[in-house]
Amino acid sequence: MFDLVLSNVRVDRAITDVGISNGRIAAIAPGLDHTGAVVEDCDHALLLPGLVEAHTHLDKTLLGMDWVENTLGPEIREKIDNERQMKRVVGLDAARQSARQVVMSIAKGSTAIRSHVDIDTENGLADFEGVSATRSRYSDVIDIDIVAFPQSGLVSRKGTAELMDEALRQGADVVGGLDPCSIDHDPKGHLDLVFDLAVKHAKPIDIHLHEPGELGMFSFRMILERTRAHGLSGKVTVSHAFSLGANDYLGISRLLDEIAAAGVALMSTGPSMVPVPPLIRALDAGITVCSGTDGMRDLWAPFGNADMLERAQILSQRNNLSQDIEIERAVDVCTYGGAKVMGLADYGLAVGAFADLVVVAGRNVTEAVVTLPPRKLVLKRGRVVARDGQALVEAP
Ligand SMILES: [Zn+2]
After folding, report:
1. Could you read off the pLDDT of 324-342 as tens digits, one per residue?
2. Amidohydrolase domain location, by residue (predicted)?
3. Average pLDDT over residues 58-73
4. 4-44+348-389 maps to which CATH number?
5. Are 392 and 368 a contacting pair, CB within 8 Å?
């Protein structure tokens, strides 16, 4: 007997039933016994594992607030300094704002989120505390990882490392880092601090690396050296890694193989304005790749909707993927890749896995990516948390 049966649902191109008990997939087979179960007729819609938003900034979104006109130039440092000061001016409450984005993510089918959260000497741990409150509030409907993120600099802003240490002590899940050359102008100092915090707290690492070309490759190699030296294979992610989109005469192929061998994962959002790591080449090298919305409707840029199926479309377009089998790999990045990076146990479409699932109209995965229908059902641990594109939990 099952608690819930998803009937007439498409799994691996076949129409079948999925029985769910105690929050887990208990059976996948046609004609399951529905006796005593709640039945959701899925009308031949497609079943996907829960989407994984593996890189965003829940503390930053302006969702539901007054519009703030963006007049910033393209420099990262300008955006960082503006945001740190403007957050308090516009009244950005990280608890309220992160909750709004979480509810939007649930409606779009995400069942897990990794969020970088700013930690700096001006705003202290306020954003971390706000997102932590949101994590507690929605803990039964979504998994949230918090990255202690030194957005304004680590070595160059004295006191930040101590605040990061405190956030990790208070439950931050991941040690963040950022452009060790171009932000801190001290790659050794920055990366040694990041890796020392990771070792001290036994936590994984996720570093924003926007640095282009040979500068980014230099920083990446310093990350690989430290990953190997500390035995952190499988525990380090490099986000963006725009340098890997440089011309291959610089030795990108060899670096990709070194990244695979070191067990370092990549996160790419597939942005349109900069070079990006070659997705299929990275996957073929054996690298775990995940994706995310990154900042959404914030003081950096007004775009984004937290839809990881749309993200698979953006990744596909940015990487010139057109074959069904390639687009399916982009969806794998937005599901299994993110799950692996976040270390989600018992994830996927298999008997025994947690019933973290999305039901979406489509005859196959590629059609769902192309048409992006509202999510018919979203399940977290077997509980329906969104239906027909609407979350069943409230935002403040
Ligand atoms: Zn980011």
Report:
1. 999 999 999 999 999 999 9
2. 121-389
3. 94
4. 2.30.40.10
5. no
